[in-house]
Specification:
By secondary structure, this protein is mainly α. It is about 60% helix and about 10% strand. The chain contains five helices and two strands, in the order ααααββα. A two-stranded antiparallel ribbon has the order 1-2. The longest helix is centred in the middle third of the chain and has 18 residues. The radius of gyration is 19 Å and the shape is elongated.
Length: about 120
């Protein structure tokens, strides 16, 4: 118990002394792995909604997020991955699968919200 407490205190002291270095390293990692982070965040949100079936292919889904990151870097405009049929709305719930994803501009996505989808009743 004493050793565990001592290690915890040492880790906290190291963190306090190197907070700027840790933040800088984290920022670099996030910048270099933005597609991976976006993919993980979206997957987590979708799993919370139970919207990801077992047959979904995570590598194909990750490709959409990588495409959005590449387009954003190339154009300087913000691009994001859109669920064609929203994951949650009052009338319908879509799935977090590759056939329900597309890359669109962030402006278009925010205007669409979760109120519009193809063949909307």
């Amino acid at each position: 118990q004493y050793q565990r407490t001592r290690n915890k205190i040492e880790r906290q002291n190291f963190k306090n002394k190197n907070i700027d270095r840790i933040k800088a390293l984290r920022a670099v990692w996030l910048k270099n792995n933005s597609a991976k982070c976006a993919s993980q965040c979206a997957a987590r949100a979708a799993s919370k909604l139970l919207a990801t079936p077992r047959w979904a292919r995570p590598e194909d889904i990750r490709g959409f997020y990588e495409d959005a990151a590449e387009k954003s870097a190339a154009t300087g405009q913000s691009w994001c991955v859109d669920h064609i049929v929203p994951l949650r709305s009052k009338l319908v719930c879509g799935l977090h699968v590759e056939s329900n994803l597309r890359v669109i501009s962030a402006t278009e996505n925010s205007q669409k919200g979760n109120r519009v989808w193809p063949q909307m009743p």
